[in-house]
Design a protein that fits this description.
Neuraminidase; 5-stranded antiparallel β-sheet
Length: about 550
């Protein structure tokens, strides 16, 4: 990825009147989802390859939407239907910490319900915590509650309404809450529009929708405005606004020990995006929605209350974005999804190789990705596929990552046990089963063009009445079998760990008088490539169209032709 002349994190550009010029500029500067970046030392670099798994810590929940920690280190799980549960000593307490299901309406869509939970920095002294939820009228409410003398139960009648924001649809609620290092409460608010309609609420300075708010809740109710909020005293602006031009910020987080801010904004038709603000940013950034989605201008005639681009002023584009549709030649090395789930910069000790990397996921694919930055820009890499519809990525007091999913589970991110490489936390014969593109082969799950290391009919060749079958199984090894008029028999076992760059290996099988040969022919995309042949003493080739690709003791294949 080429280095950039301008810092991407806060690259403020004046919008152009000509959409054609705008589009040409954008297409000239992006390739797929690559983004430029300004290097900031706090963010780490990618680590050596490790295998990861998820360890279940809670189940039988009702669509958890978030996990929050109190200053005393306990974890609390927010359910969409309105309950807050305590995760204590590895168990979910049966009695809810708080139940506001009588206020919450979560029926119309997955985006309704109890949305956010945050504990006051002085919770140990005042017992205050804050929730955000939506009701049957689609209105988003911010309320403050107080804990009781019994620490695992809140006072149900202590609720104080601080703010209500009317919305016209059950979609794009936002509702994430988090206290910043400055002690102020930050709240994300979605644009509240229907998916097939584009409202310009994110650009309306007198509207709290499509924004991140910054509130001082330390004094008189309902709240006061921090004096250094960017729009204090400016006519036509709501002073609560900290950032604007967002669609549905579904999770934002501060970098460890910093005011540097990561914002995951759920996209509209084409792009999911991650925005970043450095620690010294004074607020007021405009991320462009609904004038832009990702880095591409939105061209729609039915935008309500459209704002001319030259009126929007300076915009900040995402540091990273990824598409909804797989491009031609897609190889899985970059994310594709439909609803980004923002996470955290990892700061824990259990997974030291991830320290300093931003972790994020997507509701639709359940993949867990890292994002980091170096002198060449921003980069991303997939850790593994969780198999979940992820709703939240949060952290405990030690900085370890927890993953909530819509099916009612919470998992913890861990290192995979030895010999477990498929993220199920159990070493077994299903390990080393990554999906790899094999355009000429259907896998045993019936997906044409995609195979994995557990397919039982992986490679087949037939010459002169003799069949060669190679079953790729048992931690990625090829088990080579042969069948002829005299029956079938085991020929050889080709282990990927036995192949090193530059090696040329041969195996001799006396039963069939065959030689199996793997010849190193070079590297491709960081993988060692081998040509594999199986031939008899007379020089007859039974297999000469197989290529193996070895990377980190993993094995994939394709037809050489």
């Amino acid at each position: 990825m080429p280095a950039c002349r301008q810092p991407r994190y806060g690259r403020r550009v004046e919008t152009l009147k000509s959409s054609m010029r705008d589009l040409a500029r954008i297409l000239a500067t992006i390739i797929f989802a690559s983004q430029c970046a300004f290097v900031f030392p706090a963010l780490g670099q990618e680590s050596e390859t490790e295998y990861y798994a998820i360890e279940k810590v809670a189940g039988k929940l009702k669509q958890p939407t978030g996990i929050a920690r109190s200053p005393d280190g306990r974890l609390f799980i927010a359910e969409r239907a309105g309950r807050i549960l305590v995760l204590k000593d590895g168990e979910v307490l049966r009695r809810p910490f708080l139940d506001v299901s009588d206020k919450v309406d979560e029926a119309p869509s997955f985006e309704q319900g109890l949305l956010g939970l945050a504990f006051d920095p002085l919770y140990g002294e005042n017992g205050f915590f804050y929730i955000a939820y939506s009701d049957a009228e689609y209105t988003v409410h911010l309320e403050r509650y107080q804990a009781s003398a019994y620490p695992d139960v809140a006072l149900p009648g202590s609720g104080e309404l601080l703010l209500s924001i009317a919305q016209k649809s059950p979609l794009h609620k936002g509702g994430h809450l988090r206290f910043g290092p400055d002690g102020y409460l930050y709240m994300s608010v979605g644009d509240g529009g229907f998916s097939d309609q584009l409202d310009s609420t994110g650009q309306n300075r007198n509207d709290l929708r499509g924004k991140i708010l910054r509130l001082d809740v330390s004094g008189a109710l309902p709240y006061t405005i921090p004096p250094d909020n960017p729009f204090v005293g400016i006519e036509g602006y709501r002073p609560e606004i900290w950032l604007l031009g967002l669609r549905n910020p579904w999770r934002f987080s501060f970098a460890p020990g910093s005011r540097a801010l990561f914002i995951a904004d759920v996209g509209w038709a084409n792009w999911e995006e991650i925005n970043y603000l450095p620690a010294d940013d004074a607020g007021g950034a405009n991320f462009g929605w609904s004038l832009f989605e990702g880095e591409l201008p939105v061209e729609r005639e039915d935008v309500s209350e459209p704002m001319a681009r030259d009126e929007a002023g300076e915009l900040i584009f995402p540091v990273y974005s990824y598409p909804h549709l797989k491009p031609l030649g897609y190889d899985g090395s970059l994310p594709v999804g439909c609803a980004i789930i923002g996470g955290h910069v990892y700061r824990g000790d259990a997974l030291p190789e991830l320290r300093g990397l931003y972790l994020y996921s997507d509701y639709c694919n359940g993949e867990l990705w890292t994002l980091w930055q170096d002198e060449d820009g921003w980069h991303t890499r997939k850790l593994f596929e969780t198999g979940l519809n992820v709703t939240a990525l949060d952290e405990d007091a030690r900085g370890e990552i927890y993953i909530a999913s819509i099916d009612g589970q919470v998992h913890k991110l861990i290192h995979a046990p030895d010999n477990d490489n498929d993220a199920d936390a159990v070493p077994n014969a299903d390990d080393n089963c990554p999906l790899v593109a094999n355009p000429n082969q259907a896998d045993h799950w019936g997906a044409v063009g995609v195979g994995d290391a557990c397919d039982q009919d992986y490679f087949f060749s037939k010459v002169g009445g003799t069949e060669v079958k190679m079953f790729q199984q048992h931690h990625g090894a090829f088990h080579i079998y042969a069948c002829n008029a005299g029956g079938c028999g085991f020929v050889a076992n080709l282990e990927p760990s036995a192949l090193l760059a530059g090696d040329e290996l041969q195996w001799r099988n006396e039963q069939f008088s065959w030689t199996i040969e793997a010849v190193y022919v070079g590297d491709s995309a960081g993988q060692a490539v081998y040509e594999v042949s199986v031939f008899d003493d007379a020089g007859n080739f039974f297999v000469d169209d197989l290529q193996l690709f070895i990377s980190e003791a993993r094995l994939s294949w394709r037809y050489a032709s």
